[in-house]
Amino acid sequence: xxxxxxxxxxxxxxxPTNEEKAQLIAGVSSLLQDVLNKDPKTxxxxxxxxxxxxxxxxxxxxxxYRTKS
Amino acid sequence: xxxxxxxxxxxxxxxPTNEEKAQLIAGVSSLLQDVLNKDPKTxxxxxxxxxxxxxxxxxxxxxxYRTKS
Amino acid sequence: xxxxxxxxxxxxxxxPTNEEKAQLIAGVSSLLQDVLNKDPKTxxxxxxxxxxxxxxxxxxxxxxYRTKS
Amino acid sequence: xxxxxxxxxxxxxxxPTNEEKAQLIAGVSSLLQDVLNKDPKTxxxxxxxxxxxxxxxxxxxxxxYRTKS
Amino acid sequence: xxxxxxxxxxxxxxxPTNEEKAQLIAGVSSLLQDVLNKDPKTxxxxxxxxxxxxxxxxxxxxxxYRTKS
Amino acid sequence: xxxxxxxxxxxxxxxPTNEEKAQLIAGVSSLLQDVLNKDPKTxxxxxxxxxxxxxxxxxxxxxxYRTKS
Lengths: 69, 69, 69, 69, 69, 69
What we know:
Six copies of one chain form a homohexamer.
Chain A lengths: L1 E5 L11 H19 L7 E7 L4 E3 L2 E2 H7 L1
Parallel strand pairs in A: 1-2
Antiparallel strand pairs in A: 3-4
InterPro entries (chains A, B, C, D, E, F): 4-OT-like_dom, Tautomerase/MIF_sf
Keywords (chains A, B, C, D, E, F): Isomerase
Pfam families (chains A, B, C, D, E, F): Tautomerase
């Protein structure tokens, strides 16, 4: 499982907290267990933090997209 | 979000059902909304089915690994 | 460069044509050359066709999402 | 769409500029629209900057490869 | 570890054999163990077979590239 | 070839050394040449260093997983 999320949020707005990342890891692991009976011991999760300027949608970097929409 | 899962399961054991995939899509989207307040409308999920011979762990293709462990 | 696209389109609606894929390969290669002066000879492109049931947005598989929106 | 590029270039040679990244995002989005009629609003682009020591070709890290070729 | 290889080779030229894939899985696992002392039990390998028309280099699909070079 | 490894190791424990990365690049390239006769000149390797908090296994961030097991 590869989770790509923008580098924002958390208490100072710069990135998600380690606690939030732990919740994502636990959440996707139990989701795979519930839906497909996958063993959490062999469920790998990698989180990629993506800088805002590296995330594009609607032909724009996400910050410009958000301002426009 | 990229979910890589082995091509197995489902009623005939050959692959997950479309219903299970829909549950994964809904599950990871609401997880990202709950934990990081991400908007589901801009949350993309891609599921990769991986043939069993293409999935390795413990130096072995997964079927051999399961037999051995 | 990894391009993930849904498995649809083309003359019979089942998938993009090889000609369209060749256009994508040429297009992204010259884009990287124009913007960042990258050498096409060392620009790799991999196209992933993703089955419609494996592509999720807005908490739904894309076909259901399109019907709903 | 995932674009992996080496962490170089730009005015001080250390990395591409945000403007160049915006051009890549716009370029690949309109390419997908032109070739496959994809809606830019549901076209996601993620750019990965890769450190030079993490990029290998011809059995060598790219800087050594460039010196040799 | 994600290994992307073109869908060719093997006895009938259509794809790598399962035996070759097992060699790749074993090889990268022991490489990571030798170089970085990684535990093979927690080393995951996923092999992606890529259709020839989906693999681009030098602005061309790989078959055209090979014919040209 | 995409190698994802945790950001640890090396002389000060913070990350793999450039020499180790060069060994990985050379190792996977010659493995592909040995097993599938791939030309090293067109074998691309990208190494992703993953922060420990971004790597999950067994429903836990890897550091917690290691402490628990």
